[in-house]
Design goal:
The complex is a heterodimer of chains A (about 375) and B (about 400). Chain A is built from twelve helices and twelve strands. Chain A is of the alpha/beta class and about 375 residues long. In chain A, the strands form three sheets. Chain A has a seven-stranded mixed sheet with strand order 2-8-7-6-5-3-4, sandwiched between helices. A three-stranded antiparallel sheet of chain A has the order 9-10-12. In chain A, strands 1-11 form a two-stranded parallel ribbon. The radius of gyration of chain A is 21 Å and the shape is globular. Chain B has about 400 residues and is of the alpha/beta class. In chain B, a hairpin with a 2-residue loop joins β2 and β3. The chains are: A alpha/beta (about 375), B alpha/beta (about 400). Chains A and B meet through α9 of A and loops of B.
C-alpha cells in the first residue's frame, strides 16, 4: 500500500487536467498571440481558464494574470508593489512565518532601504491583530500575509486583516499568499479588501510551472517580466497554454465539490489526530486541530528525529514531509517552527502530514499502524 | 591554429625496459579521455614521444580539458603544423607565431630545432640561429638566452614542420592501469574523493565501497556518493561502487557496546567489509580519506585501532594534509560542491557527545567480544546484499 501524505508539497494531477494538457500540447498547440486560426484556438483555452478562475473568486476576468507559479506570483506582488509605490513610502508589514517566496523578496527590499515590520504570532499561529493595527502607517505601502501557513496549517483571518488594513490606510496594498488556501476555502477578494492574491496550480491537482496573481483593477503594480506585451503588458512571455488550461480545469473542478471535500479531509484529520494522541510522546503543533486548515497536520514525535522517521516511513511507501519540503534544502530549520517558538525537541521531531481529496481512511490507518510499529524501535536507538 | 599536440611525460621517461608498458597505458588513457571530445584524433608513439594528430575541425578547449585529466602527462604542447615551403616561408611563419603568442612581452627565448628529415638543406644549428635572428627583428622586446630561457621555440622538421612553444601543465602522476587497483572507502565528505583521486593519480584504478544506513541516511545521501564517484571517475576511469546496507550492524553495535566506542568499532567493521570487497575485486589495498587528528576517530590512536583489523595495506594519501589543503584539491577536481551538500552520513548519526579519542585496543577488542554471536553472519549478509553500481 502507498500513502501519499505530502499534498502540501504537491498534488497528483486530475485526469481531466492531464487530458487538456496533452491536448493543448499536441493538437491545439498554437501560440495565442498568433493571428491565425491555430492561435485563436489556443487563446480560447486561456480565456476559458481565466473565466473559470475568475468565477471561483468572484472577480473580473481582467484581474487574473498567469505566472510561472506561486513563487513568481509572490515575488511580483511584493517587488511589483514596492516599485509602483515608491513615492508613497517604503514601509512593508508581514508576518514571521511567511513562505520564502514572500520573505526572501521582502528581505531583498529591506537591503534596498525598505523598512519592514513583522507582526508577531502566538504559539498557535494566531496573528496579533492589535499589533497589526498599530503598525500600519501613512507610508505603509504593503501588508503581505499568507492565508494558510504551509507548515502548520494555521489559518489567518484575512477578511479581518483586510478590513483593518484599509480602514487604517486606504492606500496600502493588501497581498494574500493563498497558495495553501485556494481550493480549500472560498475566498472573496472584493469583499475582503484583498488587492493581490497569489495562487499556485500544482497544489490543487493542476500542472506544475503555472499559477496566477489576482490584481484588483484599481491596484498599482509594476510588471517585472517585460517583453512581447502579453497579458496586457503586465506579464510578458508566450502564454503557457497547457499549464493555464490545466489550471483552469483544476480550479473549476476543485471548487465544484469544495464543501464535501473539505469536510471529509477535516474528518480524516480529526480522526488521525485523535489516534496519534493515544500514542505516547506525541504533540500536535500549531493550531487546535479543528481551527487549522483541513489538510495540514503538524506533529512532533518526541525523541525521533524527523528526517529519520521520514525515511523510515518512505520505506513503507508513506510519504510525508519534515518541516516543509521547500525549506528542507536549508539546514537552518524552518522559520515557521521558530516563529511558533517550539522547543528544540519538538522542532527536531516535527513531521507534516498533508491531505487532499484523494486521501482515504485506509491510508490513514495504514500510516497509524506503521507508526505504532516503528516508533518504539526508532526511540530505542536515539543519539545519546 | 593548432593541429597537433606533443605530450610530454614525467616519470615514465626514466623507466627502463618496462617503459613501453607505461607508454602504451598512456596512449590508451589519452584515447579514452578523448573519446567524447568533438573531433577526430590519432594518438601515436613516435620517436620516444607521444603525438596527437587531429584531422579536420576539433574543439580545442575540450581537448585540453580532457588531456588535463590524463595521469602521466607532464605537459601538453599544442603544435602548429606547416608544409615545407622553403626556409623564408618558415621563418615568416615562426615569427608570426611568436608574435601572436607573446606579443610585446619582454621574454628571453631559445630556438630548438630537430631536423629528422635529413634532406632539409640547412642544419639544425643554422636553422636555430637564423630563426632566432628573425624573431629578434620582429619582436624587439625579446632577448635570446640559450642557457635559461623563459620560453623555448621548438621547430621539428619532418615530412611536415611542427612548431610549438606553449607548455600546458598536465596532472602529472602515472598512467592508469600501470599500478593495479585499490578499494576506496567513499563517504559523502570532502576527504575521501580527494584520497581516491590522489591514489588514482599514481596509476591505480579504483573501486569503492559506501556504507548506507537507511532510514538514518537518505536516498539522497546515497545519490550524492554516486555523484561523487562519477566525478572521481572522470579522472580514474569507471569505478565499481559497492553500496553496503550497514544499518543492522550499526544498531547491533549500538545495542551491545559502550556508546563512546561506537564510532571506532563501527569503523573497524567498515574496514573489514571493505577488505572483503577488495579481495573479491582483486584490489591490493584500501584507500581512506583520513587525516591525523581531524576528528575523534582520526587521532593517531584511533587510526591505529582501526588499522589493526586490516591485513591489506591502507593508503591514506591526505594523512598529513590540513583541511584547507584537502579542500583545495577538492575544488581543483570539482568534487567540493557535491561534497558539501547537507546530507548526513552514517558516521555521524549515532556519534556520542564525547567519543573516545585514545581508544585502548585491548578494551575495544573486549567490547567486540559481545558481538560474537551474530556479527560474522551480519557481515556476510552485508557483503552479499550489497548493491553494485558502475560509476563512469
Amino acid at each position: 500500500m502507498e500513502a501519499y501524505l505530502d499534498n502540501s508539497a504537491t498534488t497528483r494531477c486530475y485526469e481531466e487536467v492531464k487530458n487538456i494538457v496533452v491536448k493543448t500540447m499536441v493538437e491545439d498547440f498554437g501560440n495565442p498571440s498568433a493571428m491565425h486560426l491555430k492561435g485563436v484556438e489556443a487563446e480560447n483555452y486561456v480565456k476559458e481558464a481565466t473565466k473559470e478562475i475568475a468565477k471561483t473568486l468572484k472577480v473580473q476576468e481582467k484581474e487574473i494574470f498567469f505566472t510561472s507559479g506561486g513563487t513568481e506570483s509572490d515575488n511580483w506582488a511584493v517587488i511589483g508593489t514596492a516599485l509602483a509605490k515608491n513615492r508613497q513610502g517604503k514601509h512593508i508589514i508581514t508576518t514571521p512565518f511567511e513562505h520564502a517566496a514572500v520573505s526572501a523578496p521582502i528581505e531583498w527590499l529591506q537591503k534596498q532601504g525598505y523598512e519592514v515590520t513583522e507582526i508577531p504570532v502566538d504559539e498557535k499561529g494566531n496573528i496579533l491583530l492589535e499589533k497589526l493595527s498599530e503598525a500600519i502607517r501613512e507610508d505603509t505601502i504593503l501588508v503581505s500575509t499568507m492565508m494558510v501557513n504551509n507548515e502548520m496549517g494555521a489559518v489567518l483571518p484575512v477578511e479581518e486583516i483586510g478590513k483593518l488594513v484599509h480602514e487604517k490606510n486606504a492606500q496600502t496594498t493588501f497581498h494574500v499568499d493563498a497558495i495553501q488556501a485556494y481550493g480549500k476555502y472560498r475566498i472573496y477578494p472584493k469583499k475582503w479588501n484583498i488587492d493581490l492574491l497569489s495562487v499556485s496550480s500544482h497544489k490543487i491537482h493542476g500542472p506544475k510551472g503555472v499559477g496566477f496573481l489576482y490584481v484588483n483593477e484599481k491596484t498599482k503594480i509594476q510588471p517585472l517580466i517585460l517583453g512581447g506585451g502579453q497579458q496586457k503588458g503586465m506579464r510578458s512571455g508566450t502564454d503557457n497554454v497547457p499549464g493555464i488550461a490545466g489550471l483552469g480545469v483544476a480550479a473549476k473542478k476543485i471548487y465544484s465539490h469544495i464543501e464535501e471535500n473539505v469536510s471529509s479531509m477535516m474528518e480524516l484529520k480529526k480522526y488521525f489526530a485523535e489516534e496519534l494522541l493515544k500514542l505516547e510522546n506525541v504533540e500536535i503543533n500549531g493550531p487546535e486541530v479543528e481551527k487549522g486548515a483541513p489538510h495540514i497536520l503538524n506533529v512532533s514525535f518526541l525523541g525521533v528525529r524527523s528526517e529519520v522517521l521520514l525515511h523510515t516511513l518512505e520505506d513503507m511507501q508513506i510519504y510525508v514531509s519534515a518541516g516543509s519540503a521547500c525549506s528542507s534544502h536549508k539546514r537552518a530549520g524552518s522559520a515557521t517552527l521558530s516563529a511558533l517558538r517550539l522547543t528544540p525537541e519538538r522542532k527536531e521531531s516535527a513531521i507534516r502530514f498533508s491531505f487532499c481529496e484523494f486521501t482515504t481512511k485506509e491510508e490513514i490507518d495504514y500510516t497509524l499502524e506503521a507508526l505504532k510499529k516503528v516508533l518504539p524501535m526508532l526511540r530505542r536507538y536515539a543519539r545519546k | 591554429m593548432y593541429k597537433a599536440f606533443l605530450i610530454k611525460y614525467a616519470e615514465i621517461a626514466i623507466k627502463g625496459k618496462n617503459r613501453y608498458i607505461f607508454e602504451d597505458a598512456l596512449v590508451a588513457q589519452i584515447k579514452y579521455q578523448l573519446r567524447n571530445v568533438e573531433g577526430s584524433f590519432r594518438v601515436v608513439k613516435e620517436m620516444g614521444r607521444i603525438f596527437i594528430y587531429t584531422d579536420g575541425e576539433f574543439d580545442y578547449d575540450e581537448t585540453i580539458e580532457a588531456l588535463k585529466r590524463v595521469f602521466g602527462i607532464f605537459s601538453i604542447c599544442p603544435a602548429v603544423v606547416l608544409e615545407d615551403e622553403g626556409f623564408e616561408k618558415l621563418s615568416q611563419e615562426v615569427t608570426e607565431y611568436v608574435k601572436k603568442l607573446y606579443g610585446e612581452k619582454a621574454l628571453t627565448f631559445k630556438v630548438n630545432t630537430r631536423r629528422n628529415k635529413k634532406t632539409y638543406p640547412m642544419q639544425s644549428m643554422e636553422i636555430s640561429s637564423a630563426l632566432g635572428g628573425a624573431i629578434l627583428d620582429a619582436c624587439p622586446n625579446m632577448k635570446v638566452d640559450v642557457h635559461n630561457p623563459d620560453v623555448f621555440v621548438n621547430v621539428e622538421i619532418r615530412n611536415k614542420i611542427y612548431l610549438y612553444s606553449e607548455n600546458i601543465p598536465g596532472p602529472g602522476g602515472m598512467p592508469l592501469g600501470t599500478n593495479g587497483s585499490a578499494m576506496l572507502l567513499l563517504s559523502g565528505g570532502i576527504d575521501s574523493p580527494v584520497a581516491g583521486y590522489m591514489i588514482a593519480k599514481r596509476g591505480v584504478t579504483l573501486d569503492a565501497v559506501y556504507f548506507h544506513a537507511p532510514p538514518y541516511t537518505s536516498e539522497r545521501a546515497k545519490q550524492k556518493v554516486v555523484d561523487l564517484a562519477k566525478l572521481v571517475a572522470k579522472y580514474s576511469g569507471p569505478i565499481r561502487l559497492h553500496v553496503v546496507n550497514f544499518t543492522d550492524i550499526q544498531l547491533y553495535i549500538y545495542d551491545k557496546c559502550p556508546h563512546e566506542e561506537l564510532t571506532i568499532i563501527m569503523r573497524r567493521y567498515m574496514m573489514k567489509i571493505a577488505e572483503e570487497f577488495a579481495k573479491k575485486d582483486g584490489c591490493l589495498g584500501l584507500i581512506t580519506g583520513e587525516s591525523i587528528g581531524q576528528v575523534a576517530s582520526q587521532t593517531i590512536h584511533s587510526l591505529a585501532a582501526t588499522n589493526d583489523v586490516c591485513t591489506m595495506p591502507v593508503f591514506r594519501p591526505v594523512i598529513g594534509f590540513d583541511k584547507q589543503e584537502i579542500v583545495d584539491v577538492a575544488l581543483k577536481i570539482n568534487t567540493y560542491e557535491t561534497s558539501i551538500l547537507p546530507y548526513e552520513d552514517c558516521c555521524t548519526i549515532f556519534v556520542a557527545k564525547h567519543p573516545v579519542t585514545k581508544p585502548n585496543l585491548q578494551i575495544i577488542k573486549r567490547s567486540e567480544e559481545k558481538l560474537q554471536e551474530k556479527i560474522d553472519e551480519m557481515m556476510k549478509e552485508a557483503v552479499e546484499t550489497a548493491e553494485t553500481i558502475i560509476c563512469e
